[in-house]
Amino acid sequence: MVRLPAPLLRSLPGRHLVGADTHCPYCALQCAMTITPAAGGPPEIAGRDFPTNRGGLCRKGWTSAALLDHPERLTTPLVRADDGVLRPASWDAALGRVAAQVTATRAAHGADAVGVFGGGGLTNEKAYQLGKFARLALGTSRIDYNGRFCMASAAAAGNRAFGVDRGLPFPVSDLDGAHTILLLGSNVAETMPPFVQHLRGARESGGLVVVDPRRTATADFTADGAGLHLQPVPATDLALLLGLCHLVIHDGLADKAYLADRTTGYAALARSVAAWWPERTSRTTGVPVAQLRETARLLAAGARSGGSYILTGRGVEQHVDGTDTATAAINLALLLGLPGSAHSGYGTLTGQGNGQGGREHGQKADQLPGYRKITDPAARAHVAKVWGVEEAAIPGPGLPAVELLASLGRPGGVRMFFVHGANPAVSAPDSTRVVDRLRSLDALVVCDFFLSETAALADVVLPALQWAEEDGTVTNLEGRVLRRRAAVPPPPGARSELWIMAGLAARLGAPSSFSDDPETVFTELRAASAGGPADYSGIDYALLDSGAAAYWPYPSGGTGTPRLFLDAFAHDGGRAALVPVAPAATGGHDAVTRDPLFAGGALALATGRLLEHYQSGAQTRRVPELAAASPGARLLIHPAAAAARGIPDGGPVTVANARGEAHCTAEYSTAQRLDTVFLPFHFPGLQGANLLTSSATDPVSGMPEFKTSSVTVAPGRVPAGQGSTGHRVVTGLRAGARGASDPGPVDMAGALRAAGARPGTPATERGGA
User: What's the pLDDT score for residue 592?
Assistant: First the structure.
């Protein structure tokens, strides 16, 4: 067993616990919780009554406090010494080294040779100040964030159709009384378990329709007359939606009055779907005609009675045609008259904890605070005035994430890179190439609270605060702004990222001001967002502390907007746009052999999340209960597909394509299609699903192709040194070989304790539905 050197880890004296009402650090449901002191251990977590979770928490939420006193917590800056080893340093020395490197890089290669990669888990304050820091303190246009891997296609489709993007343009509790819910590409029973209680009304009416190539835990909720499970061929979601649009039009189910009053483009849309008659759609997708017709009928019936909702998730959006697929889902909703209705709607399920707010205030390559376009002269002038700089001081648009990562270390590209709240060494597509790019940099600076796989490659690691140690705000999947409150004093040595940015900005002589006080930063964010699509100007900490619901847009002197589009859409003229879309003539996905039982034939690889883990797993793989429940990557494969390849249940398996090779354990599952295998993306090293995914991107949103890759699957071996925890990290890296020295398995938490979920968890995991 290899452990991090003791100086890199924080000591664990008892800290005074103050307790607080706050929100979970994980997904965008932002379940309310209370943290209370506990003698001799981490604080206790309790679910708190709140519209999204109603007191329930998932297993990740129940165990979230385990990381606050984790023995691997970083609290000392680490700087790579001349011998190539990360060694402790003072804050002054670490920040001085970073500032000197920025100055040298800009002098030698220009400001755009410095890049920034943010995260959808950062608070609104940190996301806002990171965008400002990049553009003013660093002077670079080269900033994007990991939300490009999550919400980009849905956001592009929402802006295209409605003129603005908010994940759910209605409170999640509106779903409770729905007659019909069409859920495409989202396994909420595992990714956000408390959400499933909001599906109860649709289940009871027999109107829950789940679209997923896998028979997931969410799809199981459609059993016993509760609804339908549509199981299409992978990568045919767009064709499925075009076929449903065809049926709604040609079976007389469209809301003609709504279309005439509130939309544009109907005639062109009707022509574009004319060729997608049910039989053709069925041949393309594998979904029976009867199920297609029943889905259209349920949606139309719900729209006229108890309400219908169409919800999309990453399963239909993380494709090279993700924007068009999300657009087709919106077209279907508009044909039925759902968006802007008091009892129906369309929405997309934001994934990351602050995935909504994180993309509104300046982390994104093409955006300024308030969801303003960086190319809009009026937007630039407004933000420049708030910042106290000339408009010309704000750089133009940068590069979306995949292009940004591909530029690292290349001539004319980014030579120095900052990473905040992300782990692209694991989470980015075609991750072998991404790690190569990270190694090729002149300097890599990572802010984190653990030595993640990306931080292990860095030249400077700056230890940041965790969610329960700092104040701030986040915006949940409903567009509701929430208060995060400090409940635990931070350990000595760790610093807020606001403090880090302010310190570096001062050393770099940046224009404008950079505060380390969250409320001061939020006040400036309010001013910068004023008048923009995501207007926060009427929201302040006092309002949030009062418990009032604050949905943006919330203009100064006005009120919040829990339900968008009731009166008008955000386009000029107030109408939504029906936008014709079609599958690319040449396809866009890896070819998938349609004879999955042919020995050596290609299968479709789908990637996704497990109940126990979150994102790249850098946090959840360190929680003993979660790591014990899901210690490593397991490839779900249909028994017949496995038998044809000589793969035993529980045996080692190699999953490969031209981009890479992953090694994991096979698990038989009749919930899989014969032509599809599933691999979770939470695990690093040779278990990494993103060794196999493509860096091809959607031309509109920049979203990578995560969900459908062609792979071969064969009996394999578990490589030496790949432990049962599925938790590997590289330490002690030597000069000239960043990341090349791999000492083998590192059990970062010590011996993992097998432990059950917290009391009450099983019922909550089932969502109470």
Answer: 45
